[in-house]
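Hi Q.,

Before the meeting this afternoon, I wanted you to have the S-adenosylmethionine prediction in hand. No need to reply - just skim if you have a minute. The sequence and ligand are here:
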Amino acid sequence: MQHESKLPEHFPEDVRYPRVLVEQYLKRFTDPNDLVLDPFMGFGTTLIAAEGMRRRAIGVEFDSTRCEYVKSLLNKSNADWVVCGDSRQISKLNLAQIDFSITSPPYMGKNHTENPFTAYTTTGDGYQAYLQDLKNIYAQIATLLKPGAHVVIEVSNLKHEDGTLTTLAWDLAREVSLVLDFQGEEIIVWEPTYAYGYDHSYCLVFKNNGNSMIQLSK
Ligand SMILES: C[S@@+](CC[C@H](N)C(=O)[O-])C[C@H]1O[C@@H](n2cnc3c(N)ncnc32)[C@H](O)[C@@H]1O
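Predicted structure with the ligand bound:
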């Protein structure tokens, strides 16, 4: 997988996944006019792919500059589906029922101190609190999903400079599988490299079978 276009220079960090990756999952798990959710919209790859395939898509993004950028890329009617907000409160956003969700979340290493869910602008409560927040976000999303709807999360493990690892992909799979049924992982090979010391990441696939135990906790 590779990125296909450049971001404007005022966005120095490219955290996008490739549009073709999203398109493959949209083909597999959705039909035209279905409603797709990306709870960590970033630069809007999910919404751009959805627009091109005649799906409707809601993107929630914390960073208002990114929200404005994505709105400028979409048709007016689709730009209205960009929500500048906080996915930790996603159940309060009054969203409609969702047919499919795909995203790549903000990452955290096990010893990092900044909070990924405030775009690293505040100090967080540590890695376990981050995983708990992710679980709580997907517990809320589970209540919005139609029965049988799929969820895909693209994520990698992290190799750190001191030689240690954060098993982020494994830990995220474990947490989210407490609220959605885990269907398995699919390996995405990146060329020339991915990041964080790896040449690959994972798409974790979940399904809303409506029988997961939903527990919201802090
Ligand atoms: C890895 S990026 C997603 C990139 C996206 N897949 C793309 O192709 O552009 C994660 C995004 O989540 C956003 N984010 C972080 N915390 C958030 C929160 N609490 N609610 C919504 N978005 C958040 C970040 O600002 C960042 O843009």
